Amino acid sequence: MTAADRPLAKPRPIYLNLMAIRQPVPAIVSILHRISGVLLIVAGIPVLLWFVGASLASPERYAAAYGALTSWFGKLVLLALAWSVFHHVLAGIRHLLLDIHVGLDLAPARRSAAVVLVVALLLTLACAVRLW
User: Fold this and answer.
1) Which of 2, 10, 92, 108 has its CA 20 to 30 A from that of 123?
2) Which of helix, strand or coil describes residue 11?
């Protein structure tokens, strides 16, 4: 009997529901690494260019840009960008170490993923304390 002819013990789902699957911590870190990279490109670069452009244009435009970034909404944007930088750098270092076969076993991979999550959140919390 071939593998295709054997009856399945449990019917396979028609579609894969990613929200119903419990992802392991390394998968979450990998997904967040991609999300943080997109956030840095889509929001980080435009905010940086806008602020540098305003600072070079005139003192009035610099003061307006500074005021916008020090408002509560601006601080939230800066905090999200800070998390993106911290997480992206730490997860990138983790991925580089995995590429050179450091920490490939299950336990070290899970531990390094948890370290990336915790350290990125602690660094973001430190930035939040400095911002407010």
Assistant:
1) 108
2) coil
Nearest 5°: the CA angle 22, 24, 25 is 130
pLDDT of residue 75: 97
Q: Which domain holds residue 72?
A: 25-131
How many C-beta atoms lie closer than 10 Å to residue 61's C-beta? Answer: 15
Residue whose token pair is 């070290």: 108
Name the residue among 28, 41, 39, 34 with its Cα closest to residue 110.
28
Contact 103, 88 (CB under 8 A): no
Q: Which of 2-11, 75-84, 93-102 has the lowest mean pLDDT?
A: 2-11
Tokens representing 7 are 């009856």
User: Measured between alpha carbons, how far is 36 from 80 in angstroms, rounded to an integer?
Assistant: 9
Q: pLDDT tens digit string along 17-38?
A: 777 888 899 999 999 999 999 9
Confirm whether 101 is domain-assigned.
yes
Does 4 reside within a domain?
no
